[in-house]
Amino acid sequence: MPKEITFTAARLVRDVPAAEIRIDDALIAISSLMASVVTARRDTLGVPAIRGHATIQRLMKAQMALVDVSGDILRVHGDLVDIGRETGGYDLHECPTTAEGDAAPLASAA
Questions:
Q1: Total structural domains within the chain
Q2: What DSSP string runs through 30-57?
């Protein structure tokens, strides 16, 4: 297999799971923010509930957009695995579970 393909594959093995993790982190952050906003709305006396409703709707929209992005990235991951099998002749049974995987081979690819 040509060296360029090996280096490209190593970068993808590192970058795809890293992107998946970052999207999950963003989902967690928005979920925490949503909880804080709803709690603030509930606990703030004298402010009508309708006052924060538009903000909550915007947060929900942002959260749904991230869920859509997450699904797209998961599909891209699957597509890349298929391309790797076809192009590189890889016999991949499982993808790396984390972006931190094997640091030694990836460091030489960067």
A1: 1
A2: HHHHHHHHHHHHHH-TTS-GGGGHHHHH
